[in-house]
From TrEMBL:
GO terms for molecular function: DNA binding. GO terms for biological process: DNA-templated transcription initiation. This is TATA-binding protein (TBP). Keywords: DNA-binding, Transcription. It comes from the Eukaryota. It comes from Hexamita inflata. Transmembrane segments: none annotated. Belongs to the TBP family.
Amino acid sequence: MTEASLQSNQEQISKMARSIKFKIENYTALANFDSEMDLGVIFSNIKNSNVRTTNTCVQFDIFNASTQVKIYQSGACLVIGCQSLQQVEQSFKIISKLMRKIQQPHILKQYSIYQTLASGFFPRPIYLELLFKVLQNSHYDPEIFPGLMYRNQEKDLPFHLTIMGNGSFVIGGLAGEEEIVKAIISLLPDVQRCYCEAK
């Protein structure tokens, strides 16, 4: 294959990958308070909070229990389950306000998206038995679970994927939409080889 045809093939795969529809289900974001936090004070002042002694954090929910907050003694703050980037921003504003209210000194300047969970569909059903043979680091045992689970261990694009025979998938471990598209691009050649024939 010539360099020009290889580039054309890569462009075609990229175009096809971008046409695959997916939806962001939730975001996990990470911030730092720039100081150690008094977990005892946080626990005793925030309703419905609980202490996780195994990983030294206080955990509580916001937004009617749809979003989980974990504050660590080190000052790290993890927000899990936000359904939009706006909700991520709102979450940290609420947390910062709570910390001021209970007189926990902190500086919360910025946050980063730590993980994104998305769901979507490949355009055709997939032979999972064949995909299992094609994808390294995959697990498929239909007697226990009907989907194939795959973990990409490349350092620059680590992610995990669950894919069903009808083409539906859930993908996680990535920081945002562009990385999800890159992951789909990396998977597409192998997935296309395993499409079921159209009837």
